[in-house]
Amino acid sequence: MSKQSGYSPNFKRPAEIMRMRRKRARSEAGVFSSPGGQGSTGSPGQSGASPACVRPFSPGPLLNTQTRSGGGVKRRNPFANIENTFSPKKKKLLIYNDEEAVGQIEKGTEEEEVMKNRALPFSAMLTEVEQKEHQHISSKKSLTFSEDDSLFEEEEEDVKTPLLKSPQAIAPASIAPPTCTQYPTDWSLKTRVLFTSPLSLSWAEHPKAQEEAQGLSQHCRAQFSTLPHSIQDPRSSSELRCAFQQSLVYWQHPSLPWLSLFPRINAERSFTGKCTPWAQDAALQKSLMSEWSVSLSSLYSLLKTRLCPYFYLCSYQFTVLFRAAGLGDSGSITALISPTTRGLRESMKAEGIEFSLPLVDERRKQQGHQGAEEEQMEKVQERSELKEGDDCQAGAEGKSCRYDDDDDDDDDGSFSWLQEMGVQDKIKKPDSISIALRKEGHTVSLDHKPESVVCVEGAHTFTLINFLINCKSLVATAGSQAGLPPTILAPVSFRGAAMHALKARSVNVKSQVGSTYQNISSLEITGPILPSSLHAVTTLLRPAQKGNFSGTLYTHAPTAVMNTHANKQQSTGGSVDLCGCGLHPTSIQQLKQASSLGKTALTHINMNNYSYTWKN
After folding, report:
1. Are 524 and 193 in contact (CB under 8 A)?
2. Phi, psi angles (nearest 5°) of residue 101
């Protein structure tokens, strides 16, 4: 391209060209020829050929056939984009910064039309190399003017890194959510679970006699079927129905068919009016407790040898969860008790059982150095109150004084200095009971709260078993549960246990989605739902429902805090072998992980396209 008048190879901004164009329009009276003509004098540097010289990012077609009143050909504004050309409701303000003049052009005005008609194509001022570069860039980008400034904004489609893009125009990148194949470990007991799915769940109920027998046999022998990734017809899959019956089985002691022995906390209504022949028979109560002690000792032996993964002890006051070594990211046997009282904790201390308060210890760690200093000050204040009493006013002189710290345990010696001042009769010394209550007020405030959860580890769990067997307060002495031993729940069989199965019921309902109704199938499971049972059921629903289902979980409130992670002895990884504990390998792998739920429990789980989401 040869050099012509008005051409500048260092051209950067269109304002200069626009100014030159306005001057030339006023000085020349000639008319513009058509794009195919050879006598074009109004566009310096433009090859009189074809519209191929027009910038490829110029929006809209070129109006080559329309002529203005002055005889020229009306061209599209090369600096306009599709948005401000075809959106009449949106007005863009173009500001050209020039040393001599500042021209403001608003779309829809007469002045804008004149400027558009006289605008010089930007590509006409570029060399052939520059045209190729701009054509390559413009195939991926479009240039627009910002309303806030006069800089170009580059809108990219394929290029990830913007070059001259304003912060307002940068949109957050869409990131695909990660695929979660498992939900967090939940050690709480569930009383009810309601699953829903767009596909039918009727395959889960009314098993055949052979399928039910096969499922019970597989549970007792710890045999597990391998299911495909997706089952086309779940109702005709005998393996799926047998595995579902296997996942519903649990073991319980004692077993009284006319009584529902779970839950036991705040369950007086379920026992009221029922036949309880042991309530007034001491010999019968002794027999029940003797059989219960044998069952508990047998179950702990299975736990110690890793033939039982975990079990629950549910009394009318608290619940105890025993876990084998290797579960819950612990290298030793652990026991969690919730809720507890000060009296129970003092009794455990008297028996030599070492325990920790995980949530209290965690709160103290979070407080940091400041919390430690406050605790130290509280201890000093409690020790001072125990020895001396509260603050006092020193008689008629009106001087306030505080008792000095004295190592003498004799109360009379501590207050001997009051006699020297002659005000000993005006001061009432605190009695030992009020001092003790004031000292232990913070410990009593934890009673019956989630923060009162107690963790026992290692060999102290064996001492805890003996403590529970001999603890007189473990069994209610009055009320509807009087004389009834606590309920023991386990996923495997043990001595004196009875086999039970959770109740499952499938119902097809219609749910309103917008203005239409959609058929939704539901599956309700009731009973003491153990963590392994919940995981086994969800594992079966995954292939049967083709990776699309949701579940609402109803937690036994006192056991929600069982998800607290407070093990001092961390697991050494795969060194603990739990293959003989009677659970499915995938359930074992999940229960080995440390729970991330804290003192909360899962309330909803949802699987969409084989990926889990949950709420707690």
Report:
1. yes
2. -150, 155
Q: Are 297 and 311 in contact (CB under 8 A)?
A: no
- Among candidate residues 275, 279, 313, 319, the one with its CA nearest the CA of residue 293: 313
Give the whole-angstrom CA distance, residue 320 versus residue 333: 13
For residues 300 and 312, is the Cβ–Cβ distance under 8 A? no
CA-to-CA distance for 310 and 415, rounded, in angstroms? 57
d(CA 368, CA 151) in angstroms, rounded, equals: 51
What length is written for the chain? Answer: 616
Answer for the pair 502, 248: CB distance below 8 angstroms, yes or no.
Answer: yes
Burial class (CB in 10 A: 0-12, 13-18, 19+), 605: buried
Q: Where are the domains of the chain?
A: 14-169, 190-248+502-564+599-615, 253-356+447-498, 373-444
Q: State pLDDT tens for residues 584-611.
A: 999 999 999 998 898 899 999 999 999 9
**238-247 and 531-544 are packed helices; what angle lies between their axes, rounded to 10 degrees?**
160
- Over residues 338-391, the pLDDT tens digits come to 999 999 999 999 999 999 998 887 777 776 655 555 666 666 665 655 555 444
Chain centroid to CA 342: 33
Q: How far is CA 404 from CA 259, 390, 392, 408, in A?
A: 62, 11, 12, 11
Q: How many helices (H) and strands (E) does the chain have?
A: 17, 19
Which amino acid does the sequence have at 368?
G
Could you tell me the sign of the dihedral formed by the alpha carbons of 466, 470, 471, 477, in that order? positive
149-185 burial: b if 16+ Cβ within 10 Å, else e: eeebbbeeeeeeeeeebeeeeeeeeeeeeeeeeebbb
Between 453 and 161, whose confidence is greater?
453
Tokens 């607290």 identify what position? 564
**Contact at 8 Å (CB) between 221 and 580?**
no
Cβ 485 vs Cβ 378: under 8 Å = no
CA distance 366 to 355: 20
Q: What pTM does this model have?
A: 0.63
Residue type, 594: A
Helix (H) or strand (E) holding 517: strand 516-529
Residue 267 CA: distances (Å) to CA of 262, 314, 480? 8, 12, 9
Query: What residues contact residue 174 under an 8 Å CB cut-off, 6+ apart?
Result: none
- What is the spatial distance between Cα 243 and Cα 539, in angstroms, rounded to a whole number? 10
- What is the C-alpha separation between 307 and 443, in angstroms, rounded? 38
**C-alpha dihedral (245, 251, 255, 259), degrees to nearest 10:** -60
pLDDT for 125? 45
The pLDDT of residue 329 is 87
Q: Could you give the CA distance from residue 485 to residue 255 in angstroms, rounded to a whole number?
A: 11
* Residue 392 scores a pLDDT above 50: no
Q: In this structure, is the dihedral angle defined by the CA atoms of residues 384, 390, 395 and 401, taken in order, positive or negative?
A: positive
Q: Average pLDDT of 499-521?
A: 87
Say how far apart CA 456 and CA 208 lie, in whole Å.
45
Does 32 have pLDDT greater than 90? no
pLDDT at 598: 86
Q: What DSSP line would sit under 564-578, residue for residue? A: ----SSB--STTS--
pLDDT at 12: 56
The residues pairing with 605 across neighbouring beta strands, listed in sequence order, are 551, 614
pLDDT value of position 42: 42
Average pLDDT over residues 523-533: 96
Q: Residue 98 — very low, low, confident or very high, per pLDDT cuts 50/70/90?
A: very low
